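**Fold tokens**
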Amino acid sequence: MGIGSSKHEQQLQALLLGVDGSGKSSILARLCGEEVRTVMPTRGLASRLLGLPSGVQIKLFDVSGRRDLRSYWSAYFSLAQAIVYVIDASSWRRMEESSTELQRLLDAEALVGVPLLVLANKQDLPGALSAAEMEACLHLGAIRDRPWHCLACSALRKHGLSEGLQWLAHTAFPETTPSVRTSRPSTAVALRPALPEPAQDAHAHAQVQEEQPIGVGRRQRRRGAGPQGSSDPEPH
């Protein structure tokens, strides 16, 4: 059984990671009912609390994927009860870089056993790898120390995002959340206790954005722009 036994305790924390330009901030914005074409890349840390129809709440911590800030990812490993790793499935140019960063996460002792959701983003672009192709490219089948799942998605079209959150919720709370069809047997995991957020890191210029739970899977009224970042919108 996952953390907590009553409905109001069914909350898990997940790190939203990926190299810059993968579209993770756009994914978070889309899940919050915001427009994705004007999303600014995260420059430190932004967090949002999402409420699923099942009653499970997922707190996503979007950590900057800029090359000069990735060394600070480990500062937030203590928050992770799950990892959502976003990859631009249309960019062969950065596939090796994305794969290398993912392997570093898988090798981190602080993240052993932590469930992994890989989102092959930008399926709306030509040449994007499918979920099966991404699994093969990243050698995900070799993972034995944690539950994992790979989904094709598009932040622009909001395709595959709710399914990803549903997989996370079912992995944590299998008795109270519906299962997701995968190519492998579903595996429940006892999540480690949730830890409080660390103090803002002056070196990483963390900018934490907090909100009340935002419903996923229900129509959202338009919200403001996403976390502050550079002057250029993030590619979806």
Q: What stands out?
A: The domain at 7-215 is CATH 3.40.50.300 (Rossmann fold). Residues 93 and 99 are 11 Å apart (CA to CA).
